[in-house]
Amino acid sequence: MKLVVVSGGTSDPSSTRMLADRITARVLARAADEGVDADTTVIELRPLAAELASAQVTGFASPALAAVIADLADADALVVATPVYKAGISGLVKSFFDVVDQDLLIAVPTVLAATAGTSRHALVADEQLRSLFAYLRTLTTPTSVFAASEDWGTTALTERIDRAAHELVVLVAADVKRAMRDAGTHYNRVFGGAAEGADEIDLDTDLMRLATGG
Q: Considering its fold, how many domains does the chain have in total?
């Protein structure tokens, strides 16, 4: 299993990264219990802020951003953690997945997580992240993980993390990603971002030369 962890925290250290790390540790422990070998890649979005802004404007990823998205493309499982700003998900997280090709993560088992200073934002992961990843056609676990300031150190948070990790490992162990992608179900591929496919575009056409001023 290649587990990819995406953290949208903007401070160093950040509570968002701390939550992502706790979920990751529990996923790895659960995977070991099931005899599943796991390799982890962590994607911190904070250093990629400028590249993400450029990719949104130009439609093309910088080499650094392209390398990160290539890691994402190989994911067998995904953990996505966002801080909550202005009652919504982080702009960095939204920008990152805006430039990811919409077909890149089909059927990838995914845990959604969010952090905030107050429990009033507890539904952000389910109301906003879950709809985004439904559009990307990932397989989100039934359990999301939210941590407000008062949740750290509680047994309730630990239990929720354990439940989400268990659900993720069950989906990975069942190999649902491969089964769904190989079942003959047709997914209409639409080039929708800077993630991949740019090298598949034929630039040597009359229309493309007109569009580029050539």
A: 1
Single out the residue of 42, 20, 23 nearest to residue 31, CA to CA: 23
How far is the CA of 173 from the CAs of 67, 116, 170, in angstroms? 27, 32, 5
In the 8-state DSSP scheme, what is residue 149?
G
Torsion of CA 182, 95, 72, 197, to 10 degrees: 60
Contacts for 188 with CB less than 8 Å, ≥ 6 apart: none
Average pLDDT for the chain? 88
Of the two residues 158 and 212, the one the predictor is more confident about is 158
Residues 130-172 pLDDT 10s: 999 999 999 999 999 999 989 998 999 999 999 999 999 999 9
Q: Judging by beta carbons within 10 Å of its beta carbon (0-12, 13-18, 19+), is residue 67 exposed, middle or buried?
A: exposed
E strand or H helix at 63? helix 63-73
Residue 180 confidence (pLDDT): 87
186 pLDDT band (50/70/90 cuts)? low
Its domain, for residue 53, covers 2-211
Of the chain, the end-to-end C-alpha distance in Å amounts to 46
Q: Tell me the sheet residues that pair with 109.
A: 139
**CATH label of the domain that carries residue 154:** 3.40.50.360
In 3D space, the residue among 82, 101, 89, 115 whose CA is nearest the CA of residue 5 turns out to be 82
